[in-house]
Design a protein that fits this description.
There is one protein chain. The protein is built from nine helices and nine strands. With 286 residues, the chain is α/β, with parallel strands linked by helices. It folds into two domains: 210 residues, P-loop containing nucleotide triphosphate hydrolases (Rossmann fold), CATH 3.40.50.300; 51 residues. Strands 1, 2, 3, 4, 5, 6, 7, 8 and 9 form a nine-stranded mixed sheet that branches. The termini are far apart.
Length: 286
């Protein structure tokens, strides 16, 4: 355990955007990403909606279809990282939570299967959720994640003692507390006006604005202040570490250093390889 002086380091953007349908989540994310500069990649779960804004600038897309498993999100993030992209837009993160094959869907199926109740099923789901959060926080890229918003209500007790629902605003369709994982969290209303409900940069705090490329440029100035951050290991680095481990003990020690989100990718790669071998055997037998 070592005590050290606090030191400001350069950082990568971790931005969450919550908005109702039609408010401009995808459009705003792209403008801001262009302001950050560099190569922009979009993980599109919105049925090709990212292609609608090709006139705004140059960017590439990885399209995800249902089931919206965490392993698909992780693989898409790692593919953009491997290819040297500067900014990754996850549009949207909501599907990983409430879409077909998402975490809520998986939790419900575990509970319905009889292998556990609705409470104990979270023991399997929470690590997957944490792995996605870990992948975003540890990425060497800027991360912009959009989330659909829903109307949020609270129950108020009237003078007659009866409780009635009262609309209090919009909430992201995502696991509770997800907004705290980001450096900045914005809400965009139906008039395309953004406000930062959380802002560690203090640049956007207390302001109402439309997101433009200049928004990204302003944030980049703040992100680039400070000393260089230490380099992070890539998935290929961890793959090399595992391949170089020879003994059972060395492999166990090496595996303990691998982050959870990369373990999920390795497990999916192993499952895909096994499935391909089985399919080849069945084809040969036929």
């Amino acid at each position: 355990m070592q005590i050290r002086k606090a030191q400001r380091q350069k950082a990568k953007l971790r931005l969450g955007i919550s908005a109702p349908s039609g408010a401009g989540k995808s459009y705003s994310s792209l403008l801001l990403a262009f302001g950050l500069g560099g190569k922009v990649g979009v993980i599109d779960t919105e049925n090709g909606s990212a292609d609608l804004y090709a006139h705004l600038g140059d960017y590439d897309i990885i399209g995800l279809q249902s089931p919206y498993t965490i392993s698909k999100y992780l693989a898409a993030i790692k593919e953009f990282e491997k290819e040297g992209y500067t900014t990754i837009i996850i549009d949207s993160l909501t599907h990983a939570w409430s879409g077909e094959g998402g975490l809520l869907d998986k939790q419900g199926k575990i509970a319905d299967s009889g292998k556990g109740n609705s409470y104990t099923a979270w023991r399997s789901i929470t690590p997957e959720h944490n792995s996605l959060v870990e992948a975003m926080l540890q990425s060497p890229c800027h991360i912009i994640a959009t989330m659909r918003a829903k109307t949020e209500y609270v129950l108020e007790t009237g003078s007659n003692g009866k409780q009635t629902p009262k609309k209090v605003g919009l909430a992201p369709i995502q696991r509770d507390g997800m907004e705290f994982e980001f450096t900045i969290f914005m809400d965009i209303d139906s008039m395309h006006i953004a406000t930062a409900t959380k802002d560690r940069t203090s640049i956007l705090d207390g302001t109402y604005f439309k997101i433009t490329e200049q928004t990204g440029k302003d944030l980049l100035v703040w992100l680039e202040q400070g000393a260089d951050a230490p380099p992070q290991l890539t998935i290929d680095d961890y793959r090399k570490i595992m391949n170089e481990a020879k003994s059972k003990e060395d492999k166990a020690s090496a595996w303990a250093t691998v982050p959870e989100h990369i373990k999920i990718i390795f497990a999916q790669e192993k499952a895909d390889k096994k499935a391909a071998i089985e399919a080849k055997k069945q084809g040969a037998a036929a």
